[in-house]
Amino acid sequence: MSNPSEREAETPDSEGSEAERLVELLQLLANIREDGTSVRLGTVLDVIGRRSFGPMLLLAGLITLAPLIGDIPGVPTLIGIFVFLIALQLLLGRDHFWLPAFLLERQIRHQTLKKVVDWIMPTARFLDRFLRPRLTFLVNGGARYGVAILALLVSLVMPAMEFIPFSANAAGLTLTVFGLALIMRDGLLALVAFALTGLSVGTIVWALL
Hints:
Blueprint: E1 6-8, H1 22-30, E2 38-40, H2 41-48, H3 53-65, H4 75-91, E3 96-98, H5 101-104, E4 107-109, H6 110-128, H7 143-157, H8 167-184, H9 187-208
């Protein structure tokens, strides 16, 4: 029997995700049902797709950006650990993502999740009209390794963002854009994320000097 904390991950050559647009992914999140008043992160990962790097990055970014969740002390560090683990394992060519139980068992209230989805949905509908496959060489095949390296870099500075006001928002935006770029196979959006990575990391380095 497999370890319940082991999660399937996409191989470097896999394509797509269970939700192919941002609105679809948000609708999946809104429809999650679990006993009690809260939802486990492990259940959320099961719903959005356990084999895809893009949706996982997008989820990490949205959690960090959401004012009802991302502002909670400790969340940027937890998201940094989450992103570090999945990005590192993708770079190592693992067939399955492994995530520790303390991450998988983290919970969010149903009501809070619904409020976050409602907050993001108008922007998601707007973005879905413009995102499309283009410059796909920047997000397909080996290019995903480059995205993983940059996501890894962002994850390493996220704990420091606990002490720098609003800096976590830059990291959340970067991860969100990377996730969308992979899901939509939009290389132009990936270029934006590359620039945001430099901005996020540069802001932290400047603040710490």
